[in-house]
Q: What sequence folds into this?
């Protein structure tokens, strides 16, 4: 039996190729290219910046007119890794979060997770009436919200959940508290 992607020799009954990681049922025509960089992709070291974890995408918010709506609420996210990030507006959280084509976010918050339990783009967040909301982005290990007075709630992928201050959001082996 041979892999139809990389032509590696496979043991009988294999479900995945040990060389390229493809499913044994995959064909070159069925594979779509993931636009996000892979965990093992070689990067141009000259193009790398410092270890910034939270990157404002837009860079600034336009100055509001006197009659305009107030600026979005600010939230402090305290990660189990020891890092703290202050965010407002919208954003993505994950090991290497990347927006889909046409999406725009204020923040891309990267979590250092050596166990790879957190997905590349694990969840999305935003603000509604001064309260943070999150939505699991179909992550591999799911997302759990622990509200101060409400116990644990497993998030259904693609659905928004309000996360009041004092809550903890668990992303597989990592977590963050919302202040």
A:
């Amino acid at each position: 039996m041979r892999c139809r992607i990389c032509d590696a020799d496979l043991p009988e009954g294999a479900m995945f190729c040990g060389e390229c990681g493809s499913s044994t049922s995959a064909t070159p025509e069925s594979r779509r290219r993931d636009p996000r960089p892979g965990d093992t992709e070689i990067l141009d070291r000259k193009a790398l910046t410092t270890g910034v974890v939270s990157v404002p995408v837009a860079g600034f918010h336009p100055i509001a007119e006197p009659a305009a709506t107030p600026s979005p609420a600010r939230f402090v996210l305290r990660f189990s890794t020891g890092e703290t990030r202050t965010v407002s507006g919208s954003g993505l959280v994950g090991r290497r979060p990347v927006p889909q084509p046409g999406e725009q976010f204020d923040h891309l918050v990267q979590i250092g997770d050596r166990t790879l339990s957190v997905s590349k783009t694990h969840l999305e967040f935003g603000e509604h009436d001064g309260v943070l909301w999150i939505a699991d982005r179909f992550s591999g290990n799911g997302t759990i919200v622990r509200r101060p007075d409400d116990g644990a709630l497993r998030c259904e992928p693609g659905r928004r959940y309000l996360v009041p201050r004092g809550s903890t959001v668990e992303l597989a082996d990592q977590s963050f508290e919302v202040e």
Observations:
- Confidence is low (pLDDT under 50) at residues 40-64.
- The domain at 54-178 is CATH 2.60.200.20 (Tumour Suppressor Smad4).
